């Protein structure tokens, strides 16, 4: 960027325009070559107007159909993206933004059409963070209809230009986590509730424990359903690099928080999560930090998962040996299961609940659906060696000692 800083303004504009045209054309190739494009773009309808200084152009995403125009402005865009700073434009288009939090600190702007039809422009970091209402109340067909209002970040992850930034942030190749169901029907492991046994295993092995003072998701959403003070934890040497939202604590504190969270009905989620390491300033990410979250269905940041493309969903793993099934004869189509599924893994078709109908690997086996089913139509089971296999997988990705 040092040499770039000395480039004359006209040359900068010409280079930015060249990169911008390439970005628009590359999106057309992406639409044809990406294996899961049709799945990822289902119900995705966006007219994206780009503005970089005086440079203009727009993209139209209409599910699998893609088109673009250069040097023109769309009549009725749904998103307006860009910046006046050509240096920032060059960094973005030349794929030099290190990760999403760093991008959120820039002067990149996004305009979103409000209910009144007007576009309101703000800095990207002000409109893509967590906000109350991100978690879904249902995933029924009417909610997935064209024109559904999704959070801005859930819309941007499907625009090809943003994929490299999100991949570096979430690092799906190395990140790996699991949701542990708290359903009593799963039985016990070593004479304890499965989630408590697993958490105790890793807490006792951990060299250090970091205790969050609150749950960031529930706090920012001002959750009224679950205790906001039952926040996340982190285990391992990487905890010594953390300096936000909490403090170094004891194993006794960690075990007590785990017990309270499970009793309260919060689902444990644990593993190696690159994005959390970035957000909580525990870099460099070295595979020595395990994040533990206690997720509620109303505020969990994973509510974005059901709208995310497959490249961001693959590192969220179902617990080994866990199966969720529906008895068609008992299901009455009440849709209670849809109300608590934050992953988009449930559908109701012809008044019967169906799990992962098209093999889209959305169900995470969290077990929320079984817990709320009024007719007992949903069953969650686990294979005998499931817990041991899950522990072995996590230990192959993260070392807490």
What does the model show?
- By secondary structure, this protein is of the alpha+beta class.
- The chain folds into two domains: 2-128, Nonspecific Lipid-transfer Protein, Chain A (2-Layer Sandwich); 170-397, no CATH class.
- Helix content is 31%, strand content 22%.
- It has a seven-stranded mixed β-sheet.
- The radius of gyration is 22 Å and the shape is globular.
- The two termini are 40 Å apart.
- The model is unreliable at 130-148 (pLDDT under 50).
* C-alpha termini separation: 40 Å
Shape descriptor = globular
Query: Low-confidence spans: pLDDT under 50, at least 5 residues?
Result: 130-148
Measured on Cα atoms, how large is the radius of gyration? 22 Å
Please, how many domains?
2
Q: Quickly give the structural class.
A: alpha+beta
Average the pLDDT over all residues and give the rounded result: 88
* Tally of contiguous helical segments: 16
Strand content: 15-25%
As a percent range, the share of helical residues equals 25-40%
Please give a handful of descriptors for the protein shown.
401 residues, alpha+beta, Nonspecific Lipid-transfer Protein, Chain A, 2 domains, 7-stranded mixed beta sheet, 6-stranded mixed beta sheet, globular
């Amino acid at each position: 960027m040092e040499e770039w800083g000395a480039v004359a303004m006209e040359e900068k504009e010409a280079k930015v325009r060249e990169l911008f045209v390439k970005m628009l054309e590359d999106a057309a190739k992406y639409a044809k070559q990406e294996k899961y494009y049709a799945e990822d773009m289902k119900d995705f309808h966006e007219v994206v107007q780009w503005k970089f200084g005086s440079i203009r152009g727009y993209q139209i995403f209409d599910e699998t159909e893609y088109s673009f125009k250069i040097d023109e402005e769309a009549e009725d865009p749904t998103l307006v993206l860009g910046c006046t700073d050509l240096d920032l434009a060059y960094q973005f288009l030349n794929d030099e933004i290190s990760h999403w939090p760093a991008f959120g600190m820039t002067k990149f702007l996004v305009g979103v059409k409000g209910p009144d039809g007007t576009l309101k422009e703000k800095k990207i970091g002000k409109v893509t963070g967590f906000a109350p209402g991100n978690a879904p109340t249902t995933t029924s067909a009417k909610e997935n209809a064209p024109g559904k209002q999704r959070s801005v970040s859930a819309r941007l992850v499907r625009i090809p230009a943003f994929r490299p930034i999100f991949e570096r942030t979430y690092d799906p190749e190395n990140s790996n986590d699991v949701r542990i169901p708290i359903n009593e029907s799963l039985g016990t492991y070593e004479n304890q509730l499965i989630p408590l046994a697993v958490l105790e295993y890793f807490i006792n092995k951990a060299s250090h424990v970091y205790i969050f003072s609150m749950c960031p998701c529930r706090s920012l959403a001002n959750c009224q359903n679950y205790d906001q003070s039952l926040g996340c934890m982190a285990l391992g040497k990487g905890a010594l690099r953390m300096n936000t939202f909490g403090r170094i604590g004891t194993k006794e504190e960690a075990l007590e928080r785990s017990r309270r969270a499970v009793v309260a009905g919060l689902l444990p989620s644990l593993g190696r999560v690159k994005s959390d390491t970035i957000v909580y300033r525990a870099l460099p990410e070295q595979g020595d930090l395990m994040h533990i979250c206690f997720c509620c269905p109303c505020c969990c940041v994973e509510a974005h998962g059901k709208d995310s493309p497959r490249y961001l969903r693959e590192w969220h793993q179902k617990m080994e040996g866990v199966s969720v099934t529906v008895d068609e004869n008992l299901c009455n189509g009440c849709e209670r299961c849809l109300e608590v599924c934050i992953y988009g893994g449930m559908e109701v078709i012809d008044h019967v609940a169906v799990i992962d109908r098209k093999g889209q690997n959305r169900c995470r086996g969290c077990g929320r659906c079984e817990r709320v089913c009024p007719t007992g139509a949903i069953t969650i089971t686990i294979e005998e060696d499931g817990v041991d296999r899950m522990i072995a997988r996590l230990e192959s990705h993260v070392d807490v000692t």
